[in-house]
Design brief:
Length: about 375
């Protein structure tokens, strides 16, 4: 069977794609379960997993589940003469989840998180609006994530809440640079949204975000807790929806993929949010307060392929007024997100088996699209 474009770009085969899809959908799936599902022996699965990890196509990342908690977020887009200098100035800021350099009308996007909108506004005012080299700034408050969003959050933002941006704030952040050390705040302003998480919990979260392979024994030594106590706290945090684990592609490390930021203006925000939640091609997305009420991030084999997805699945929707697409060209931090390894995308039609696509195309084409995965599996067998 001929290789897909994605398989050629990433040097993987159909079994690798199946494994990546299974692990992205269920981070706790075992090698034995994968082997049974794809009809391979367990040692072969283990070898493939190791290969995919080395390629950074399969990376484990702990983080705060921002879809389940109510941590305040904002997207800040700007045009600046010196994008590298801007990223350098914010790389130690605990409120910065990530930042991208982009091609287009704006050339830097920053994702911020904090305990209050006022704090985020203060950061934007100090770092961006007051910078004479930054000529344009747009700040959009995030109402809710469109996708399940699990990203590392530096919980030291609480110790900076009472500080104005500036020298003291930067010095405090710089002293922690390169480590996961958590400094408890006198009054944790995130406590209400994190639902009873205490300083020990936060220290565990920070340690796992810094090193996903850390053992419970190592976490116990760092927090002065017993190994069973650490295990119980991790289970509690995951059950509460605070601590999430993501297994996906590290887009920063895998430079061969296209990654596009799409700002969408629509006449039906709720309907489009629902549609994009069902779309397997949306790696990350936010419903925001802005003229373009949705910002989505789409990864793919190439920029051309991503543009085809946007044309077919977004621009062709009658509810969409316009879409501004901006290719992402570099990342401030690692970005671990799911990539659609399963969908057989056809320009003009959509993805085989995708409910959002099959709902809008003619019945006979939908039936063909639905049969494609089964036909592909039969050929592979």
């Amino acid at each position: 069977m001929a290789e897909s474009a994605l398989e050629q770009t990433l040097d993987i085969d159909d079994d690798d794609r199946k494994i990546l899809s299974l692990v992205q959908n269920n981070a706790s799936i075992t090698q034995a379960e994968i082997a049974t599902t794809i009809n391979k022996i367990q040692p072969a699965v283990g070898a493939r997993l190791l290969k995919l990890e080395r390629k950074r196509l399969l990376t484990t990342q702990y983080g705060i589940n921002l879809s389940a908690t109510r941590i305040q977020m904002a997207l800040v887009r700007m045009y600046t003469k010196h994008s590298k200098a801007v990223l350098k100035s914010i790389e130690c800021c605990p409120n910065v989840l990530n930042a991208f350099t982009t091609l287009g009308r704006t050339n830097v996007t920053v994702i911020l998180a904090g305990s209050s909108i006022e704090k985020l506004e203060d950061i934007v005012e100090h770092h961006f609006r007051s910078d004479p080299d930054i000529k344009h700034v747009e700040m959009a408050i995030v109402i809710e994530p469109v996708t399940e969003t699990i990203l590392p959050v530096d919980l030291n933002i609480e110790t900076h809440d009472a500080m104005k941006c500036g020298g003291a704030c930067h010095a405090k952040a710089a002293r922690r640079a390169g480590g996961a050390r958590y400094e408890p705040a006198a009054k944790g302003k995130l406590d209400p949204v994190l639902r009873g998480v205490d300083a020990k919990d936060k220290q565990i979260i920070m340690s796992l975000q810094d090193d996903p392979e850390a053992t419970q024994e190592e976490l116990g030594q760092a927090t002065k807790l017993s190994q069973p106590a650490v295990g119980a706290r991790i289970a509690k945090l995951q059950k509460a929806g605070v601590l999430g684990i993501r297994k996906g592609v590290n887009f920063k490390a895998v430079g061969r993929l296209g990654f596009v930021q799409a700002a969408i203006a629509t006449s039906d925000v709720a309907g489009m949010v629902q549609k994009l939640r069902a779309c397997p091609n949306i790696s990350l997305g936010f419903h925001v307060v802005s003229e373009t009420s949705i910002v989505a991030y789409i990864g793919g084999n190439s920029l051309d392929e991503v543009e085809e997805v946007i044309d077919t699945c977004i621009r062709a929707d009658d509810r969409v007024k316009y879409v501004e697409t901006i290719p992402v060209i570099s990342y401030l931090k690692d970005l671990v997100l799911p990539l659609n390894f399963e969908g057989d995308f056809t320009p003009g039609l959509g993805c085989a088996g995708c409910s959002a696509c099959t709902a809008r195309i003619p019945k006979e084409l939908a039936e063909i699209a639905t049969r494609l995965p089964a036909q592909k599996a039969a050929r592979a067998g």
